[in-house]
Design goal:
This protein is of the alpha/beta class. It has 2 domains: about 170 residues, Aspartate Aminotransferase, domain 1; about 270 residues, Aspartate Aminotransferase, domain 2, CATH 3.40.640.10. Helices cover about 35% and strands about 15% of the residues. The protein is globular and about 70 Å long. Bound molecules: pyridoxal-5'-phosphate. One of its GO terms (molecular function) is pyridoxal phosphate binding.
């Protein structure tokens, strides 16, 4: 059993953080009166901050990343050995872990063939957008370069990735954005846009309507999250994926699945799309690839797409003229290879499925007793509970109250998340994404904390 680390002298660390660190996604005014939290150490699903406080982390590092938990000596060792042998080489040459990881990954992704390395989910997605644009220029006279994205989805933080943000406020004040990115309706049945029984098929039809309006020959690609993460933990309804896949084939539109959150086991399959029997043309992944132990992202595609960049002696611009400097770091693929091995050796896909069912069942049980829970959704260890002020009207719960639930859980020593604050009125889903190693006791402790917080909220 791991003992709690000796608390460091927290004051100078917190002072340095307060004085010099610009935190992600944060308003800093609150730090004038409350201390910023600084984490020091982790083991399994437990974390300790600089004051020595212990937390059970149901967020996998805040943003669905540390899928195998903290303090994994096996991953650290694999990275150390690789760094001592060869830390880096980039450009037109490979490395041993790069080659080995690509081979191991492709073995999990039938129908796909090529892996392009970079450092973040945003970057991995931008690689696809660039590939699609280049295919359009080289093979369609520059006319098939539009990229469709879906309301509520998120694909990253760079300007082009934000141009495909289905969460309006994420993009607000960062424009102007490049042309050629077009949104399609979301598919969340709880917030239904159509009064039909076959909701999944209807939501897919809505994509076809956009395609016909824009002109099928102008569209190169459709990017979707298999399960929308920050936009509300949205599991598409039955029939959706089959029809979306059919529509893409019908109009020769490449299907790009952003598995930055879902990939590498989070939903109980290697990839979210593999629950639905569909075949994508591009898959991007980042967060869980190396479980947060190193920065790595992958853009994976088919041999058919790769062939479209085939050398032409008369065309010096034919190849993919892109580089990601730190795509040459070997720590990433070394950590990723070890991550893959651990998921397999420790049966973590199976554990994720079992613990995910328990988490979902516990949340449904809470919904029986707390009318503030309007909807419960999820797959594997990726679950959400949407909170409402009124079950009948589905009026979203006030953001301050949602944050009060998150804060109450933290006060009980359990870290949970809530969906993105940037969707006004629709930011009220509690997000639960424990590590894939979670035990029954840990799952129950998470939902017990939520139970207590909701009880206090409505007392
Ligand atoms: N795609 C999805 C679905 C995400 O949730 C995120 C980040 O949260 C990204 C892409 C961007 O990844 P990164 O922050 O590594 O650039």
């Amino acid at each position: 059993m791991h003992a709690a680390p000796i608390p460091q002298d927290a004051a100078p660390i917190i002072a340095a953080d307060r004085a010099h660190v610009w935190h992600h996604l944060s308003q800093h005014k609150p730090y004038e009166t409350t201390d910023p939290r600084v984490f020091v150490e982790g083991k399994g699903m437990r974390l300790w901050d600089a004051t020595g406080r212990e937390f059970l982390d149901a967020t996998s590092g805040g943003v669905w990343t540390v899928n195998l938990g903290y303090g994994r000596a096996d991953i650290a060792r694999a990275v150390q050995e690789q760094l001592l042998r060869l830390p880096y080489y980039a450009g037109a040459a490979g490395t041993v872990p790069g080659a080995r990881y690509a081979e191991a990954l492709i073995a999990k992704m039938p129908g796909l063939a090529r892996v392009y390395y970079s450092n973040s989910g945003s970057e991995a997605n931008e690689k696809v957008y660039k590939m699609v644009r280049q295919i359009s220029h080289r093979h369609h006279g520059g006319r098939k370069g539009k990229i469709l994205f879906r309301e509520r989805d998120y694909h990253g933080t760079t300007i082009a990735a934000l141009a495909t943000s289905g969460q309006a406020q994420r993009a607000e004040q960062y424009g102007p954005f490049p042309d050629g990115f077009v949104s399609v309706p979301h598919c969340l049945e709880y917030r239904a846009q159509w009064d039909v029984s076959n909701y999944g098929e209807r939501a897919a039809d809505a994509i076809e309507e956009v395609i016909l309006r824009e002109g099928p020959d102008s569209i190169g690609c459709l990017v979707l999250e298999p399960i929308t993460a920050g936009g509300g933990v949205i599991v598409p309804p039955a029939g959706y994926w089959e029809k979306v896949s059919h529509i893409c084939r019908k109009y020769n539109i490449l299907l790009h699945l952003d598995e930055v959150v879902c990939g590498l086991g989070r939903t109980g399959a290697w990839f979210g799309y593999q629950h639905y029997g569909i075949q994508p043309d591009f898959v991007t992944m980042a967060k869980g690839v190396a479980s947060g132990y190193a920065a790595i992202s992958c853009t994976v595609t088919t041999e058919a797409v790769f062939e479209l960049f085939k050398d032409t002696p008369t065309d010096p611009l034919c190849h993919f003229r892109d580089i990601s400097t730190f795509g040459g770091c070997t720590a990433g693929p070394a950590a990723a290879l070890e991550t893959l091995r651990i998921i397999e050796d420790e049966g973590l896909l199976e554990n994720t499925t079992r613990m995910g069912e328990r988490l979902l069942a516990n949340l449904r049980d809470l919904a029986e007793r707390h009318t503030v829970i309007g909807d419960v959704r999820g797959k594997g260890l990726f679950c959400g509970a949407e909170l409402v002020a009124d079950r009948r009207t589905k009026e979203p719960l006030a953001e301050a109250k949602v944050q009060a639930v998150v804060a109450d859980c933290a006060a009980q020593g359990v870290l949970i998340g809530a969906t993105n604050r940037s969707i006004p009125g629709l930011n009220t889903t509690l997000c639960l994404a424990p590590a894939l190693i979670a035990s029954e006791a840990e799952i129950d402790r998470i939902t017990d904390a939520i139970d207590a917080a909701l009880t206090r909220l409505t007392a």
